[in-house]
């Protein structure tokens, strides 16, 4: 079995990030590529949202926007996969180029703008999935030209929630105008209230909220409180940042869009810490942002994340990073004399 990224590695710099991504997806889909590592990690297993996670490392939203390779990524070792963002109607997204690699900074900037095949196409794929393959969450958003944001989230929830293990309300992408305003208390309350109407469609499916790292900590705390009051079971912290932390070196650093990877780590981890402290662990957090190694993963968990996700690390390290993060996490727990992952969650907060 090949490793897609090994296969494509030498070409990555030549063919551009979006084409490389398409090729990687195709290779995974046809089963010619993929490195596997053991998904079942008894020492790292955790139960949350009524789901038994074999390990805490998930694939972040945006890699598999159309749920094409959920089974393959689970087979590669991920403990769970979040597909999406999916909008009700298909949309093309922003003009290309819209993904930029910043190798000097171990980072990516993207302004894709929710390019996806739409909820009906994705629903068809999810209908065909085998639940025993592993946990699949679905991340939903609104169409760019929608006049009714709440209606879009309702439609997407209605269609997709019955087919998923959890649903993430994405109000934090920087690439859809007005989307992040939905994080403001009143708008968020209205959005979540309007979702209550379709909640009975999938009463057992956990609803999560994904936040932007650019929220002031007070606003993030307010959003978390509103979320908890409206039946949200957990937070995904965080999406990409529109800020540009000092020290970025690559010439693409000035491109518009959301920054992910190493330079996002401190910002998103401090948001995890703040929200974990504020909520006393009441709203479990999926920590994502800048995890490139087992050490980063462990710090994110110790800051308060019960589960973690990666995307940009895959761009630099390929699927081999999944096994190395899981192996490293087991070592960190053992070195600190901790008997379970849960004991490490929030240990530094
Ligand atoms: C190319 C790209 C596309 C992304 N698309 C989405 C998306 O559609 N929905 C979403 O919620 N997050 C999206 N993200 C954000 C990731 O899910 C994640 O929150 C962020 O990249 C931080 O993690 P990382 O530093 O490990 O990449 C995207 C990230 C990248 C790099």
Describe this structure in words.
- With 349 residues, the protein is α/β, with parallel strands linked by helices.
- 52% of the residues are buried.
- The chain contains twelve helices and 13 strands.
- The protein folds into two domains: 1-34, no CATH class; 37-344, Alpha-Beta Barrel (TIM Barrel).
- Strand 12, helix 9 and strand 13 (305-310) form a beta-alpha-beta unit.
- The mean pLDDT is 92.
- It has helices at 4-15, 17-29, 70-75, 119-128, 149-160, 185-196, 217-229, 265-279, 294-303, 312-317, 320-335, 341-344; strands spanning 46-48, 51-53, 57-59, 80-86, 99-102, 107-110, 135-140, 166-170, 206-211, 234-237, 258-261, 285-288, 305-310.
- Flavin mononucleotide is lined by residues 60-62, 65, 84-85, 99, 108, 110, 112, 139, 170, 173, 210, 239-240, 260-261, 264, 288-291, 310-313.
Notable features of this structure?
349 residues; TIM Barrel; eight-stranded parallel barrel; 13 strands; 37% helix; globular
Layout of helices and strands, plus pairs?
Layout: H1 4-15, H2 17-29, E1 46-48, E2 51-53, E3 57-59, H3 70-75, E4 80-86, E5 99-102, E6 107-110, H4 119-128, E7 135-140, H5 149-160, E8 166-170, H6 185-196, E9 206-211, H7 217-229, E10 234-237, E11 258-261, H8 265-279, E12 285-288, H9 294-303, E13 305-310, H10 312-317, H11 320-335, H12 341-344
Parallel strand pairs: 3-4, 3-13, 4-7, 7-8, 8-9, 9-10, 10-12, 12-13
Antiparallel strand pairs: 1-2, 5-6, 6-11
Helix pairs in contact: 1-2, 5-6, 6-7, 7-8, 8-9, 9-11
CATH topology (fold) name of the largest domain = TIM Barrel
How many helices? Answer: 12
Overall pLDDT: 92
Instruction: Please name the fourth-level CATH homologous superfamily of the largest domain.
Output: Aldolase class I
Level-2 CATH architecture of the largest domain? Alpha-Beta Barrel
Total of domains: 2
Question: Count the strands?
Answer: 13
Instruction: Indicate the low-confidence ranges by residue numbers.
Output: none
Reported for the largest beta sheet, the result is: 8 strands, parallel, barrel
Q: Within the largest sheet, what's the order of strands?
A: 3-4-7-8-9-10-12-13
Our estimate of the beta-strand percent is 15-25%
CATH class of the largest domain: Alpha Beta
Write the H/E string, N to C: HHEEEHEEEHEHEHEHEEHEHEHHH
Which structural class should the secondary elements be placed in? Answer: alpha/beta
The distinct bound ligands, ions and cofactors come out as: flavin mononucleotide
Q: Radius of gyration over alpha carbons? A: 18 Å
| Helix share, percent | 25-40%
Global shape: globular
Cα distance spanning the termini: 42 Å
